[in-house]
Amino acid sequence: MKIVRFMRKHSKTIIPAALTFLFIFAGIALASSGGEHGAAAPKGWMATDTYKVMNFAVLMIALFYIARKPVAEFFSSRVKAIKAELADLEQKKATAEKNLAEYAEKMASLDQESERIVETYVKQGEVAKQRILAEAEAQAAKLEESAKRNIEQEFKAAKLKLQQEIAEKALEQAETLVKELINSDDQDRLVDEYLDKVVA
Length: 200
Description:
By secondary structure, the chain is mostly helical. It contains four helices and no strands. Helix 2 packs across helix 3. The longest helix has 135 residues.
């Protein structure tokens, strides 16, 4: 039992040593069976051949019993590691698919958000356009009213100036006419009449 426990405990060192020993022994056995180069090889089955086969069988059985559990544990641990790796890969795949779905959803929401933003800007642009047009119309109405007032004032000023010019011309013509129609006798008579009225 102690030997079995010792072998199980040190199986990681015993298995390579046993394999190395097996290859060395097999090499020695093959080299020693060659004999002399010049001698003819014996024909048929020899007693040494039986011992070689028995030695090989004993070594293989011992190696099988020694290496059976570590090899099974190695392959079992390898299977577990592969299963764990596959589970990890499946989890990563699920996480990646979830992230992809989230990104696709975000992209769809970004499209909707961009459409909403564009629509908002279009509405704001329409409101600004209406406001600018209203302000321009109000400014145009003010300018038109101011122009009308200026035209009316200019017209009144021109009319007044024309009336003054007409009055001045009429006075000049009246004075010229009076001078032409009134002689010196008429002037003396008018002066006398005026003095009589003032004295009286």
